[in-house]
Amino acid sequence: MVTGDNLSDKGKRDLTLVEKALNGDQLAYAELMEMYRESIYFMMLKMVRTEDDAEDLTIEAFGKAFNRLHQYSPSFAFSTWLFKIASNNAIDHIRKKRVKLTSMDSAYTNDDGDTIGIDVRDDDKNPAEETMHTEKVEVMREVVKRLKPRYRDLIEKRYFLELSYEEIAEEMDLPLGTVKAQLFRARAFLADMMKNTKDAI
After folding, report:
1. Is residue 141 scored above 50 in pLDDT?
2. To 10 degrees, what angle do helices 176-200 and 51-67 make?
3. pTM above the 0.70 mark?
4. Buried-most residue among 20, 30, 56, 99 (CB within 10 A)?
């Protein structure tokens, strides 16, 4: 990767972490996420106006950015690139949600009114897309099985059983804030495992 001579000190620091991440340094991924997670989350919250959706979209944004990290060009700051991915992802989410709200035969929406960030639905798949979707779900389920029990339970309840945060808190006898914090960590672990699974295929 070409060194970004035009970057600020902060931009150069990020570029170093990106290069380490591309070379397989998992701590570099974690450090990038830690530095920008809060600012991405608050940007998502301003765009979608619900904490649940903002949390889901934050994880999605990092997942997409990390999967495309090889496409990042140091001609501009990593943060600019990351925020663009997050913003575009949120716009897509808002557009899909509007379509579902105005469609007479819209897909099921849970009590929170949010869509599933990990398993994106498409009611108009052709047979090939349907097969790929089914395979993705199967891979997802296999990866989820490898999570620690408490994280596995949270992911299964939230994304497979489609329980609300409140229902999960009540069922697991945990404070709502604890459920959200642990689910945030569970999704981060899951995103990382999915990336490693994808790389191994």
Report:
1. yes
2. 20
3. no
4. 56
